[in-house]
């Protein structure tokens, strides 16, 4: 999953003023006498200057993708940045245009410029192609990259994967059963899911339009992301056709104001061997419990201070999971639904625990530590909801 990027955005986004009007310029060396280059540049520049973070009937994007996707620009909804790339108050520079068949690739860099120091955040690929009227419009890179891939529908999930990959139909059916169970528990209304399987993380990012993102080398080869607006799962072949960690994010749309800790917790609250980054739930619980035992002053309710010690276990996910477990013990699924509606601010989460579980913030910290210890010592976990 997106561990390092979550930490990155939590640390930095709070300190910047978000904006989606992006200034765009040309890099030196681009032929400004090329009329098509300049037409495409004006198209991209106009799109980025016109609030690209919002979903509206953009005159710059092609009609086909606007009709196909709820959020037509996949760069802003892929799922690994919060807010999207366009909401990070960046500058943009077009590095080059490349002609391919009947379209051009726009290769550009999003960056911060502070005290004359540049911080590159991403290098992206977006396509410019003429419509039937001969006017250039913007397109996503992903459909072009995957146009020769196999597309196989199993239940409500459409799997898309390269010809070299063999889809495990048993896993695909299990994924559909899982989604159906989620829908039953959380009253979801999911009618279609797209599920992309990439060879590895580098391929995943490149094929979705990112040639570079900050800290790319820090990503373990267990990356996966969920586009909650378009119901798209992006994962890698090693994670298979039933990546529960990502599919469970389908509930995000049902509870848009839920606190991120509860949503993150539910994403790992599973007996699957791939609770998070290829490791089961108990593996992560034991690691965090060892950390608690070594530091008795550790405050699990001081969320911003709980950092991950490695690239495998993200404590925040499992603190959220134990919170969900405490809620389920007290009042079952109906109380959990109430918690998911309680609000996305820390104070609203603490108020819910005080009101509904009679736990002050300090008492919640103690209860969390106790539950980590109980599960670790028992060496088993009885999940109170099973997907």
Architecture overview:
Helix content is 37%, strand content 19%. By secondary structure, it is an alpha/beta fold. The chain folds into three domains: 3-139, no CATH class; 146-254; 256-387, no CATH class. Strands 1, 2, 3, 4, 5 and 9 form a six-stranded mixed beta sheet that branches. A five-stranded mixed beta sheet has the order 6-7-8-11-10. Helix 5 links the parallel strand 7 and strand 8 (193-198). The longest helix is centred in the last third of the chain and has 26 residues, at 315-340. The chain starts with a helix and ends in a 9-residue tail after the last helix.
How do the strands and helices of this protein lay out in sequence?
Layout: H1 3-13, E1 23-26, H2 35-49, H3 63-68, E2 91-100, E3 103-114, E4 117-130, E5 136-139, H4 142-145, E6 150-154, E7 157-161, H5 169-186, E8 193-198, H6 201-207, E9 210-213, E10 225-227, E11 232-236, H7 244-247, H8 260-268, H9 281-294, H10 315-340, H11 346-357, H12 361-378
Parallel strand pairs: 1-2, 7-8, 8-11
Antiparallel strand pairs: 2-3, 3-4, 4-5, 4-9, 6-7, 10-11
Helix pairs in contact: 8-10, 9-12, 10-11, 10-12
Can you give keywords for this protein?
387 residues, alpha/beta, 3 domains, 6-stranded mixed sheet, 5-stranded mixed sheet, 12 helices, signal
Q: What structural class should be given to the helix and strand makeup?
A: alpha/beta
The oligomerization state is single chain
Q: How many E-type strands? A: 11
Output the number of helix runs: 12
The major sheet is characterized as: 6 strands, mixed
